[in-house]
Amino acid sequence: MRQKNALMPTLRTVSEAEMISHQLMLRAGYIRQLAAGIYTYLPLGYRVLNKVSNIVREEMDRIGAQELLLPALHPSELWQETGRWDAYGPELFKVKDRHDREFAAGPTHEEVITNLLRGEINSYKKLPMSLYQIQTKFRDEKRPRSGLLRGREFLMKDAYSFHADRESLDKTYEDMYQAYQNIFTRLGLDFRAVEADAGAIGGKGTHEFMVLSEAGEDTIAMCASCDYAANIEMATVVSETQAEERVAGPAIEKVATPGKRSIEEVASFLQVGPERLVKSLLFVVDGEPVLVLVRGDHEVNDVKVKNLLEGTVCELADEETVRRVAGVPSGFVGPVGLKEQVKVLADQAVMQLGSMIVGANEVDAHLMHVHVDRDFTVDLVGDLRNIQEGDVCPRCGGTIHFKRGIEVGHVFKLGTRYSEAMNARFLDANGKEQPFIMGCYGIGISRVVASVIEQHHDDNGIVWPVAVAPFTVHLIAVNMKNEEQSRVAESLYAELKQAGIEVLFDDRLERAGVKFKDADLLGIPVRITVGAKAGEGLAEIKLRRSGESKEVAVADLLNELPAWIKRADQ
After folding, report:
1. Which residues contact 278 (CB under 8 A, 6 or more apart)?
2. How far apart are CA 94 and CA 230, in angstroms?
3. What DSSP string describes 536-569?
4. Residue 39, φ and ψ in degrees, nearest 5
5. DSSP 3-state of 493
6. Quick one: CA dihedral 366, 372, 376, 380, positive or negative?
7. DSSP alpha helices (H): ranges in 378-443?
8. In 214-338, which ranges are continuous DSSP H helix?
9. For the chain, how big is the Rg over CA atoms in Å?
């Protein structure tokens, strides 16, 4: 491609972008924003997007998955069959046609693919079957301010597998897991596969693939001694402390705590450590209020609460609900003598306390010397808190530390969640109807592009890995008005194209400084510069990542180039 007439407008600065990937893609002319979370991919950006897509296709095809293309508009009836029309939440774009029929702009395709297979596959003899697509998805994100890392319209690879038995699902899950390992390795990413929650997709057994980056919104709990890694939502907490002896101590004592609502305020006022206090937080799980107790120095993990109750939607109760159930505002709620009877859940660390301090269900008051069982009862006990740095690894006993991560892939074992709801069945070997057992496997293609940049950039711009770079070679003629330089550069451009090498030719009538600055910004792995020594038959070859450079005879350049391309990622 010739740069002179290409649509690749570069900018020196941008003001509206926070993330490095967002800034650099705008500055380098890879994308332009149309509206919040909605982007146009300019030619360079689209080439990168296709490079990522093709790597994904190759690995999906390698494990026998078949590519198709499903509709982006989904009739509401399909989503109502699974209960997700209302449960999915405000991220679901909903529209009506001229006949007042409701549709959703697809954020994911479980319902659509299940509807397809229930009409086409009726025998176990056609199973297992894996299908995938690469398609634009739509989600009305609340805060789409991170460029391609969180868009309202984005490109995604979503795959779905259908099985007659669990063993078959396990095998495909392993194949997909390995395919994802291959994909993200080929993309040049530093990533981890972590244990995760299925969220709105549903199902049991799931891993997220996280790119390690400070730009990530997710916190990953990692072990310093083994390969254990889990999203903080799912990281298992191992209790190291011994349960305190519950002796017949003092009776409950109500103490005034005027204006003291937070754990820190109450602990300071009563001159005790926060671990002696218990947070009593009211959640609403599938429409029902539940009280969750955790130690004062811990944080409630709402995903663990949802999973313990086998719920679908778990949210912190609003102030109106708190006042209705407890009769007081948040900060003074406790498990003793609630106004309404609600299910009480306690974290395992709470059950180890001999006595505790809790809210009194009375404004400006707390209760001291409270004992579990003696003063209140607990319905369910479990691991309900977030893991903390320094906690014990649940796998090897090592020490947990935190990293930030960007979720770029997710693999799920859906089981029969969708097939049961949609009556999608097949005949087994005995002629008996059975629901399909399903798996689901997603990769955020456009998010991957941004994630690569978050890990591969420097102060001058993007530093693309060869596998996803829009071009492999950036050919620069320093002065196109110089006949010798122009002739040599044009000849090299023709030879590189003839050799099948993807080359961007900077044939602009610009100053050398502008060309080199733009080249660093664009981040193409190998740069060939035709300059003042063109008349001597010499050109410079330079690697974007390492800065290594060498003068090479133009006649030898094509022979030497493969070795330089191979070193470009090192």
Report:
1. 293, 294, 295, 296, 334, 335, 350, 353, 356, 357, 358, 370
2. 34
3. GTEEEEEETTT--EEEEEGGGHHHHHHHHHHHTT
4. -130, 150
5. helix
6. positive
7. 417-421
8. 263-270, 302-308, 319-326
9. 29
- With beta carbons less than 8 A apart as the criterion, state whether 448 and 52 touch: yes
How many whole angstroms from its chain centre is CA 319? 31
Angstrom distance (rounded) from CA 402 to CA 25: 28
Q: How far apart (Å, rounded) are the C-alpha atoms in residues 315 and 305? A: 10
Res 195: pLDDT: 81
Q: Spell out the domains of the chain, with CATH numbers in brackets.
A: 20-235+401-454 (3.30.930.10), 253-382 (3.90.960.10), 471-567 (3.40.50.800)
Structural tokens at position 465: 């890995």
Cα-based angle 342, 344, 349 (whole degrees, multiple of 5): 165
CA dist 492 and 45 (Å) reads 25
Asked if the model's pLDDT at residue 77 lies above 90, the reply is yes
Please give the share of the chain, as a percent, with pLDDT higher than 90.
87
CA distances from 195 to 158, 177, 190, 232, 306 (A): 19, 12, 17, 9, 16
107 class by beta-carbon count within 10 Å (0-12 exposed, 13-18 middle, 19+ buried): buried
159, β-bridge pairs: 132, 441
Q: Nearest to residue 180, comparing CAs of 56, 21, 319, 82?
A: 56
Determine contact, residues 276/331, Cβ cutoff 8 Å: no
64: left (phi over 0), alpha (psi -120 to 50) or beta: left
Which CA distances in Å does 172 have to 69, 168, 338, 559, 565?
Answer: 21, 6, 49, 43, 35
Whole-angstrom distance, CA of residue 279 vs CA of residue 304: 16
- Cα angle value 324/328/330 (rounded, 5°): 100
CB 101 within 8 A of CB 442: no
The DSSP 8-state label assigned to residue 383 in this structure reads -
What tokens appear for 499 in the block?
A: 């050799």
Q: Residue 274 in contact with residue 296, Cβ under 8 Å?
A: yes
| pTM for this predicted structure | 0.86
Six token digits for residue 530: 């035709």
Specify the 3-state DSSP secondary structure of 81. helix
Q: What is the DSSP letter of 377?
A: -
Tokens linked to 424:
């999608």
Q: Residue 273 corresponds to which tokens in the numbers above?
A: 């450590």
* Phi, psi at 480, each rounded to 5°: -70, -15
pLDDT at position 43 over 60: yes
- Read off the amino acid at residue 516: F
**Tokens linked to 128:** 């297992």
Q: Where are the alpha helices (DSSP H) in 422-544?
A: 445-455, 483-498, 512-522
pLDDT class of 16 with cuts at 50, 70, 90: confident
How much is the mean pLDDT over the chain?
94
**125 neighbors 430 (Cβ within 8 angstroms):** no
Q: How confident is the model at residue 239 (pLDDT cuts 50, 70, 90)?
A: confident
